[in-house]
Amino acid sequence: MFSSYLTTSLRAFSKHKQHFALNVLGLSIGLAAAIMVTLFAVYELSFDRTQPNAERVYRVHTDYRSWGLQLVGTAGSDAPEMMKEQSQVEDVLLLASADGLEFYNAALALTVKVADRQVQLPHFYAVSGNLLDFVNLNVLSGSVQDAISLPDQLALSQSTAISLFGHTNIVGEQLNHDSGSYTVAAVFEDLPENTHFYFHTLTAVPKHAEPDVHGYVYMRLTPNADATAVETELNRTFNDRQQGRRKTLTLHMVPMLDVYFNSRGPFEMKQGGSEQVMWVSVALAVILLLVASTNFINLNIAAAARRAKEVGVRKALGASRLQLVQQFLTEALLVVSISGLIALALIEITLPWVNQMLGRNLSLDFSIWFLVSVVGVIILVGVLSGLYPALFISSFSAKRVLSGDLQRGQTAIWVRKLTLYLQSVLSIALIIAAVTIYKQMALVNDLEVGYGKTDRLLVKSLPSELLFKADNNRLFDSIRALPGVSQVTISNTNLTVDMNGELFLTWPNGEQIEGTQPTVSTGYHAVETLGLTLLAGRDFVPQYGADWAHTDDQDVRRYAILITESLMKLAGYDDPNDIIGKQATAHRGRTQVTIVGVVADVKLGSAKQQKLPLSFRLGVNSLPSADIVVKLDKSASPEQVSRQLQAMVVEQLKLHEVSITRIEDEYQRAHISEHRVQQLVLFFSSLAVFLTCLGVLGLASFSALRRQKEVAVRKVLGASRYSIVNLLAREYLVLIAAAVLLAFPASYWFLDGWLSHFNERISQVVWVYVFSAMFVALSTWITVALLAFRAASVRPSLILRYE
């Protein structure tokens, strides 16, 4: 029986090649999108699933939004440690970045000597001794437990061991530094990609560290614990220990399984994913598959007339309706199966491009689970999209069909119109979204942030003690001498990310400002190199050597600062010239600063963050690492300068390697989630419009065939080709006009919510909505016109000769 159905199906495909090709093309695209996005979603949701008791572990985040900042994935460890007394808290893990421990009386050497080079230990963290209860590590040699329990011991990742020693058999090896040495106690396998943890060097938290070390704090709760109650008690404990404006801060417990989607801010081990991007991808893929499936339903219903006599003859010869349903379902499943194979080929071809767009490393894994899932999707799509056409076609009466009396019925017409209407709504909405998101991201890219984004290189994360030296002229003079380099300075803050410190001043008029006041430690020529706009005063220049941070005979710390216009106004000054040369104090008079310049406001971080009053201070070495900022000539090649710059910095600072990037790339990275949404919406909207036109093409071809006699009569009566085209296109254009009534308000509501996350945003304009509707209408009209002109070109005598 099945072989008979299969033979009949193949004959039908051969006879109706255009119909078969349109179905396969549409379903292939829809299935490829669905499978591709499923791979992406499964990967995103797999993060940290294999960690011990992951469902009971929470990471403590600090909410700085009351300070005009954002939610940060780090917290002080004292309040969570006190929570261990709670019956619902089993254990607490601290994972602290080694470069911040000096603030807690527990400084660790960050650089070691390998041969004659200084090597900065990569992704170096101090951890409490219970790490292995929270994180799965595959230990290759030695004992990680010893490394995180005993002083001056290290556990290195496999890649770090190979980078430093050339092999992994290194347990017991010594790594010397200026104040002693470390002993390698263990080597562990590099962490998998699907975890938010990212470390390559581990050691124990020093015993003499202060109790409130700031870092990544994890709490494991008891089974059936009430996480909400624990968080409430945690905040009460935290708040009792705070003073002043720190009492406005709150702590949030984020489940470990959700940390990946909540780790896109500053100070993360690595940047996490975007739940928004994932769900937008899933929604768009489902939409695309639905559009392809409705096309399949429409085309099969529209093609019913071509199969009507076949059904009539089969019924006359004794075929039951069930057998006919089975026959047409077999055809549907065969079409979907062929489409599935083509979809897998499309995925394999386009995966490199998709990986580049999403920043992932997805691949087709032909495992049993994957193959069963694909077969299940094919069967589901085949049955759901093929059942209604099968029931509809098999319902034809043999007597009426064979006598030439075929009435399609209102149900089939309304099903076809409803599905076309929904396709038009989705197409219009997606185009509106694509254009609006593009305009918003163009605004973000061109946003005046107060510093230069183009023609600037960033040499990242260098030991700050090598850079913040008042007499460190040799290195910077050498960099300035490179062809294509205009100027150079240093900075301890990546302006595209977020603040790294604050400076609270008492101003000359006695004013003391409340609220967040970020500060950036920098070097000479900061205004010129960073691209700041000077409103009054001057830049930091070597001719004023006393500007550089130093301590005088009275043990007072002195240095020069630049302030932004908003900070100047908060301090009570309206004219920038009134504050130039004035002195302000900090730290109860132990620090005295001289204001030498006022610059235009600077926006730290992404476009979603507020502009904050900011200061730049000269020569203050406040953090373990800093960056070199290089301004290029307009005609310079960034790639060529980067190569020369890397060789020079490695040589002069005796480093193993350095990382160089462009500031404009760093700025783009701060908005990577929004850029991915833009690319996804543009890609899927293009496919949706294409599939909608594909469906219209198929339906219009059947409409032209059904109405060929009407067209012939109209031509005889003098109708032009243009009027015939409009006649055939009218029903589709009416549906698009009706689709506007749903697409416009739905799009406005969705996009207004998305735009509300930006401090600087565009206004939604009418022309974008009109353009989107007109584009879909024009695409539909052109699609119909291609067929209508051909139908209108046939001589009426060939159509009407038997009438």
UniProtKB/TrEMBL annotation:
Pfam families with a match to the protein in the record: FtsX (PF02687), MacB_PCD (PF12704)
Primary localization class, coarse: membrane
A cellular-component GO term for this protein: plasma membrane
Topology of the protein relative to the lipid bilayer: Multi-pass membrane protein
Protein name: ABC transporter permease
Organism: Pseudoalteromonas luteoviolacea DSM 6061
PANTHER family: ABC-TYPE MACROLIDE FAMILY EXPORT SYSTEM PERMEASE COMPONENT 2 (PTHR30572:SF18), MEMBRANE COMPONENT OF TRANSPORTER-RELATED (PTHR30572)
Keyword Ribonucleoprotein: no
